[in-house]
Amino acid sequence: MERVKKLEAHGVIKGYHAVLDAKKMGKDITAFIGVSIGHQRYIGEFASYVVRQHDVLECHHVTGDESFILKVKTANTLSLEKLLGEIRSVEGVTRTVTRVVLSTPKESQKLEFDEGLAGEHLSGRKTSGEREGPATLAEGSRKR
Predict the structure, then answer these.
(1) pTM for the complete prediction?
(2) Contact indicator for 68, 50 with CB cutoff of 8 Å
(3) What is the pLDDT of residue 140?
(4) Residues 6+ apart with CB under 8 A from 108
(5) Using an 8 Å Cβ cutoff, are 61 and 69 in contact?
(6) Of the given ranges (35-44, 80-89, 105-114, 133-142), which has the lowest mean pLDDT?
(7) pLDDT tens across 81-93, in order?
(8) Could you give the CA distance from residue 49 to residue 68 in angstroms, rounded to a whole number?
């Protein structure tokens, strides 16, 4: 229990939640929507819009052909079509690509706990992603 409290205090554990059955709540359609934004100046406006949408579970600003990828759970194809129309009407949106989920062999929010990385994080030591980069290593090799 003390270990959990320490992880909570350091922000490693961000919260707790119940896992709800979407189908039993009337959300029969899961879809991923790729959204292209025409210009950088519209990114903030789109993000603000998405935060207010209850059917949008996740929104990720990504690299690649699209600017954002949304994970959506909605009641049916009519509600999905309505949401797509709303998304397309947001200023700056130039294109959407929708992928409807047929089945989900794996869905998880579980993140494996890595004792080593968590220990480094909690102790204030640098994690592997924060260690010296190539420039620093090259400088170190010249000192030899």
Answers:
(1) 0.74
(2) yes
(3) 40
(4) none
(5) no
(6) 133-142
(7) 999 999 999 999 9
(8) 12
In Å, what is the CA distance from 69 to each residue of 6, 34, 43, 83, 107?
34, 5, 13, 14, 17
Q: What residue type is 131 in one-letter code? A: R
Q: What are phi and psi of 6, to 5 degrees?
A: -65, -40
Q: Which residue is it, tokens 């989900």?
A: 104
Q: Where does 23-100 sit in CATH, by number? A: 3.30.70.920
Q: What is Dmax (Cα atoms) for the chain?
A: 68
